[in-house]
Every structure is written in structure tokens, then in C-alpha cells.
């Protein structure tokens, strides 16, 4: 019997989501609100586009952007989607259509935003510790919204470039608030020992110095304490320190009009855990509302006159994407069973890099006893795994499996290691599916070398 499973369900806590019709035995019961998104069966996608392939749901992305905006509706704000999470042009376009802005960290990301039109650039915040003169010039000429400056040396370089081009630059200092946030150490950014931002204790003096440059307008304060943060508390601590600083800076005579709270709101990578019914207790909407409340309380001290900039990445796109891959081989080494897929760590590096958990769902699960397996890729690294000692229904060569919650830091962090072309990407829009990035070919990889 065909039952429905919505592998993107968690992002909306949807029930009865008829996303994928599997001849399997899962049922998607993950919560409260119901949404019918009729999407194509994954089998069809695998046949049409081959594997591995990233599959995204446009509905889910749009729903997340709207959910985020709803939570902040009482506060003047601009959601600036963090492009690094997923920088595929069709995804950016979708988010642009929701009137969002963009958080970028390189000239390359700015070029991507510019493909949406010049207007999109006016809603860009430019973060990053290592901006080059060329990147600053492009951003100045593109008339971006604001530069989040991360060092005194960068202020000087930006002031020089702005003077040369005779273009006024709005700047925020990204302050380092020395706030601990529980997450993987590689993606924690808010402690003094991290490379990010300017020590908040020095910030007033740095603002005073910045204000002397004719072509710089110090009008914002920004902070970003890390990524995949599941509790509201550290965001509250960071924003309170920022608000205190804004009060002081205003007393110092600066016209601070922007507070940028950064990104970092986490998701539940276990939300679809379990096999007898996908879904979990994570309520994304409640989570973002709690986050909004935590940010808005300290901001009240500023009595309006401030636009809150937000830079969510993962929260908007992670759960709207999955990586569809086919089992190549199943083999035993001693007591271990390895399920070897055609996707590898080069396609999705999060498990290898952070020991990150991603749910893995067989598309046609076999009934019967589950087995403890390692799901691994074909790359020549022992770290090339998607799951270790995971209890899964029996898998055989040829089976399709979906690696869930892969919409953020999936393809954008992929590489060509082992000379593996990157996967295709497909967007599901209502009843239609669209190839938004073709699979790379070996020619794509070697052409730059043949050209020299
Ligand atoms: C400055 C900045 N803003 C926004 C983000 C987006 O973070 P997330 O995807 O966790 O929301 C990042 C990544 O951590 C970042 O470094
Ligand atoms: N790449 C990380 C997030 C990094 C955020 C960068 N500021 C992840 O996959 O979780």
C-alpha cells in the first residue's frame, strides 16, 4: 500500500503532507499544522536526474522565510538570508521574492546576489574577517546596505577605498561579545578567543576613530555568536551587550540606526528520528518566536529608531533539502556492515567535519529486522561517513536513501575531492520539479587545467 511521507515535514510540523508517495510503510506525523504539498516521488527524480542529487522544496523555504518574518512582525526588521548556507541561484531568487535581503561573506556571494538585479544588492550586509580591496570596491559600487567591519585594519582599508571611489559606506562594527553558546566548537564564534569581530570592550574607541573618516558612516552594531544554537539564552546575552553599547554610542553622538543580531538559530537534526513515524517534538515556529522575544526585549531600551537586521541561514533552508543517494554496495568487514552510497563526504561533509547527525531514510524500507550499519561514501577517507552504527531497515545495492536536513551547508560546502563532480540540484515547486543546477561533468573539473 502506498503511504505518504513528507521528508521535509519538520520545517512546518506538517501532517498528511503528500510530498512523496512511497510504497513503503512510513507515515509522516510530525505535529500540528497540516499542509499539502504535492511533490514528485523521489524514485522519479532519481530516474530523471540520476543520483546523488540534492532535492529542495520551494514551499518549505518560502514557509520558513514567512515564519521567520511573522515572528518579528512587531519590530522594524530586515531578514538578510545568509547566502553561505545555500547559495544556489534559484534558492536566492526564491528568497529574494519574499523581499528578504542577503548576508554575504565574499565578492563571489555578492556576484551571486547581483544576478538577481541591482536592487537586491541594496539589501546586502557584508560580513567576514578577510574582505579584500577588490571585494570592498565591488560592494561599494553595488551600494550595499551595510558593511559589518571586523577589524581596525579593515576600517582603514574601507575608508581608503570609499574615499577613492567617493562613495559613502554605512558601517557596523561586528563586536565580539564574549558570550558562550553551546554548539560545535568549529561553528562557535562569540568568544574572545575566536577570530571574529572586535572586542566589545574596545568598541567605543574604535567607533570614535571610524567616525573621523569622511566616507564612513558608523550607523550600526552587529554581532554573530555562532551557528546551530538551540537555546535562546546566549542570543539574549549577546543582544543585551549590544544594546548597552548602542546606548553609549548614541550618548557619544553617533546616529546608530541598525542592530544586526546575526544568524545562528538552530534546528533539530533528530526531528525526523524514528522509523515508525517520522517527526518529533521540535516546534520550529515556537522556537523562532522564543528567539524573537529574546531579541526584542533588550531592544525596547532603544525606543524604536532602530532596524533589526537578522541573518538566518540554516533555519530557512536546512529542513527544506535532502540528499538523495543510491546504495552501490553492502559489505561486511568483521562485525561491521557498511552500506556504501554513491554520495560521499565531498557532497555532504557535515558528518565528517562536525560529526553532525543527519537522519537517513530508505525510500522503500524493507519490512523485517533492522540492522546496525555504517552508511559511508566512496571517498578514500575513513572519515567519509554519513552515519555510524545506525539502526536501519535492511538495505541492498540499488536501493535509494534520503539523507535529510541537507538543505543548508550541503551543496554549498561540497567539493570535487577524489575528482568527483558535484551533484545536480532539483527544486520542487508545487507539482513541478525543476533542475536548478546540472550535475557537473569531469570536463567541468579539468577544463581550467587544460586552458593553461
Ligand atoms: C556572520 C554570519 N551571519 C550569519 C550566519 C548564518 O548562520 P546560520 O546558518 O547558523 O543561521 C553565519 C554563519 O554562522 C555567519 O557567520
Ligand atoms: N558549516 C556549518 C555552519 C557554519 C556557519 C558559518 N558561519 C554547518 O554545516 O553546520
UniProtKB/TrEMBL annotation:
Query: Catalytic activity, per the record?
Result: meso-2,6-diaminopimelate + H(+) = L-lysine + CO2
Which residues does the record list as N6-(pyridoxal phosphate)lysine (modified residue)?
84
EC supergroup of this enzyme? lyase
EC number annotated for this UniProt entry: 4.1.1.20
InterPro entries, per this entry?
A: Ala_racemase/Decarboxylase_C, DAP_deCOOHase_LysA, De-COase2_C, De-COase2_CS, De-COase2_N, Orn/DAP/Arg_de-COase, PLP-binding_barrel
- Positions binding pyridoxal 5'-phosphate in this chain are 264, 311-314, 409
Q: Which residues are the active-site ones?
A: 380
Question: Keywords assigned by UniProt?
Answer: Amino-acid biosynthesis, Decarboxylase, Lyase, Lysine biosynthesis, Pyridoxal phosphate
Determine if Repeat is one of this entry's keywords: no
Q: Does the keyword Amino-acid biosynthesis apply?
A: yes
Q: Name one GO biological process term.
A: lysine biosynthetic process via diaminopimelate
Q: Which cofactor does it need?
A: pyridoxal 5'-phosphate
**Highest taxon, organism lineage:** Bacteria
Q: Which terms does the record give in the GO molecular function aspect?
A: diaminopimelate decarboxylase activity; pyridoxal phosphate binding
| Orn/DAP/Arg decarboxylase 2 N-terminal domain boundaries | 59-318
Which positions are annotated as binding substrate? 314, 350, 354, 381, 409
Return the SUPFAM superfamilies for the record. Alanine racemase C-terminal domain-like, PLP-binding barrel
Chain segments annotated as coiled-coil in the UniProt record: none
Pathway per its UniProt entry is:
Amino-acid biosynthesis; L-lysine biosynthesis via DAP pathway; L-lysine from DL-2,6-diaminopimelate: step 1/1
- According to the entry, every stretch annotated as the Orn/DAP/Arg decarboxylase 2 C-terminal domain falls at 54-407
Function of the protein = Specifically catalyzes the decarboxylation of meso-diaminopimelate (meso-DAP) to L-lysine.
The record's subunit annotation is: Homodimer.
As for family, the record states:
Belongs to the Orn/Lys/Arg decarboxylase class-II family. LysA subfamily.
Protein known as: Diaminopimelate decarboxylase
Species annotation: Acidisarcina polymorpha
> What is this protein's gene name?
lysA
